[in-house]
Each structure stands twice: as structure tokens, then as C-alpha cells.
């Protein structure tokens, strides 16, 4: 991993892992479920497609993709936080997806796969934790087959006046208190709004994807701009 990366991120996710799903659903008012469904739909997977889900956390993206996908689709989920993966495993078993979802510990900067293996690569709520976004996007592009699709789902800050004000009050003041109360982790839910604030505006991130070698890059703000779904393709 590059030295510019934040050393505390893995430890932080390991520590909040037991409360992660509950807080995701609660703090987003279950919008996170809808956002992951939109990501899965946008992949347009054909039967038998192979998907790499980076920063898979507790497995929600992989499970969402499988629920919506054509027959024979398989998802490989990787994450560098062992406790997040530990929680993903029983969810995959309960979802009867053990034969279609494979989980592995790996850093986004050191993916243990041959280049050009995947029909789609996804990362949801993970890339804002990565400082060197262009390098990691290039690695994701290398993992794709020509014509393969990249989907990045990320939180963002709404741009409009009153909504922006309400959202920032909730996100910067109330959310850290709720997060600390339920998870017992004081730093993680202060870091969350700070990391979202640092995420580039959508047009800028789309330009980064282009610079990393993706074409047909487009993006779709969701829930009044609280989340943004970016799609790009590896040139054929
Ligand atoms: C906010 S969670 C998102 C989890 C999941 N994608 C979801 O939709 O709920 C961010 C995840 O990114 C992982 N992560 C952050 N940086 C990473 C990196 N460089 N390599 C692998 N995983 C990383 C963390 O361990 C954490 O599980």
C-alpha cells in the first residue's frame, strides 16, 4: 500500500464491524439498500458473469448483486478488514450463496487476481477511504475484461441550499453522536462526515475515472445527491 494511505482505516472498520450493518440501515434510513440495488442493476450482467467487489465489508453488495443477477453470476468479495469479512461469511451462508460468493482478505492495492478476469468491478462506500484514487482506479481497470464495467457507489454532499444545510447538520452533528452511542467508537463516526466532505465533486471524480482509462463514464446522483453512482467501461 502507498504510504499516503490512512493507516487507521482497517483497524477502524474492524472495530465498528459488529455494529456496521445496523448503523448503516439506521443512519441512512435504509437508503443504503436502495443505493446498492441501483448499483447492481447498472452492471447489466449476463449469465455466468464474474464480478469483483472491492471493499466488500459485510457482503451486502455481493448479496444484492446475486439477488438481482442472471443465473450463474459469481462474485468475489475482497476487503482488508478481517472482522468485516468474518461477519460477511454467515450472511453469505444464510443467503444460500456459498457457491456463488467467494470472500478473501485483500488490499485494494494488492489484488491477488490475474488481470482481465472480471466482467465487472464494484466498490461501494469504500473509495473515499482510499487516498490515491487514480492508482486504485487503474488497478480496478486492469482487473476488467475489455468492455467490462466499473461501478463506484459513494456518499456525497447535496449541493442545494436548504437541503444541504439540513443534511450537514444531521451528518456533522447528530450522526457522530448516534454512531458513538451505538458503536462505542468515538472516532469512526466523526471520520465518516470528514471523509465524505473530502470526496471530490461528482464531475471531478468522473474525470478521475476517465483519466484512469475508463470510457463512457457517467454518474447518477441519488436521494437528492446524498449518494452518487458512477459507471465507466474499460475500452474494448
Ligand atoms: C464503509 S465500508 C463499505 C462496505 C461495503 N462495500 C458496503 O457496501 O457496506 C468500507 C469498507 O472498505 C474497506 N476498505 C477500505 N480501504 C480498503 C482497502 N485499501 N482495501 C480493501 N478494503 C478496504 C474497509 O475495510 C470497509 O470494510
Molecular shape: globular
CATH class assignment: Alpha Beta
pLDDT averaged over residues: 90
Strand order of the largest sheet: 3-2-1-4-5-7-6
**Unreliable spans:** none
The multimeric state of the shown protein is: single chain
Task: Report the biggest beta sheet as strand number plus sense, adding barrel if it closes.
Answer: 7 strands, mixed
Report a brief summary of the structure.
With 236 residues, the protein is of the alpha/beta class. It is 46% helix and 21% strand. The chain has helices spanning 9-27, 31-42, 60-68, 82-94, 133-143, 161-183, 188-198, 202-211, and strands at 50-54, 74-79, 101-105, 118-124, 144-155, 215-222, 227-233.
Break the fold down into its secondary structure elements and pairings.
Blueprint: H1 9-27, H2 31-42, E1 50-54, H3 60-68, E2 74-79, H4 82-94, E3 101-105, E4 118-124, H5 133-143, E5 144-155, H6 161-183, H7 188-198, H8 202-211, E6 215-222, E7 227-233
Parallel strand pairs: 1-2, 1-4, 2-3, 4-5
Antiparallel strand pairs: 5-7, 6-7
Helix pairs in contact: 1-4, 1-6, 2-3, 6-7
Bound molecules: S-adenosylmethionine.
Model description:
With 236 residues, the chain is an alpha/beta fold. It has a single domain, classed as Rossmann fold, CATH 3.40.50.150. It contains 8 helices and 7 strands, in the order H-H-E-H-E-H-E-E-H-E-H-H-H-E-E. Strands 3-2-1-4-5-7-6 form a 7-stranded mixed β-sheet, sandwiched between helices. Helix 1 crosses helix 4 and helix 6 packs antiparallel against helix 7. The radius of gyration is 17 Å and the shape is globular. The structure holds S-adenosylmethionine (SAM). The site of S-adenosylmethionine (SAM) has 19 residues, from helix 1 and helix 3. S-adenosylmethionine (SAM) binds next to helix 1 and helix 3.
Amino acid at each position: 500500500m502507498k504510504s499516503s494511505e490512512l493507516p487507521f482505516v482497517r483497524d477502524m472498520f474492524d472495530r465498528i464491524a459488529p455494529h456496521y450493518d445496523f448503523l448503516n440501515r439506521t443512519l441512512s434510513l435504509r437508503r443504503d439498500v436502495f443505493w446498492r440495488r441501483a448499483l447492481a442493476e447498472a452492471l447489466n450482467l449476463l449469465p455466468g458473469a464474474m464480478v469483483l467487489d472491492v471493499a466488500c465489508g459485510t457482503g451486502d453488495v455481493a448479496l444484492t448483486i446475486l439477488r438481482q443477477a442472471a443465473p450463474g453470476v459469481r462474485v468475489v468479495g475482497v476487503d482488508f478488514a478481517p472482522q468485516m469479512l468474518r461477519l460477511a461469511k454467515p450472511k453469505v451462508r444464510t443467503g444460500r450463496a456459498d457457491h456463488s460468493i467467494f470472500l478473501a482478505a485483500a488490499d485494494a492495492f494488492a489484488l491477488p487476481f490475474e488481470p482481465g478476469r472480471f466482467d465487472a468491478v464494484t466498490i461501494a462506500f469504500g473509495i473515499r477511504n482510499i487516498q490515491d484514487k487514480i492508482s486504485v482506479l487503474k488497478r480496478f481497470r486492469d482487473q476488467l475484461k475489455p468492455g467490462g464495467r466499473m461501478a463506484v457507489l459513494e456518499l456525497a454532499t447535496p449541493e442545494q441550499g436548504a437541503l444541504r444545510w439540513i443534511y450537514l447538520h444531521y451528518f456533522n452533528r447528530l450522526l457522530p453522536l448516534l454512531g458513538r452511542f451505538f458503536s462505542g467508537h468515538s472516532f469512526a463516526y466523526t471520520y465518516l462526515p470528514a471523509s465524505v466532505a473530502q470526496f471530490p465533486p461528482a464531475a471531478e471524480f468522473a474525470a478521475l475515472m476517465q483519466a484512469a482509462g475508463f470510457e463512457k463514464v457517467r454518474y447518477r446522483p441519488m436521494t437528492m445527491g446524498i449518494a452518487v453512482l458512477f459507471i465507466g467501461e474499460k475500452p474494448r
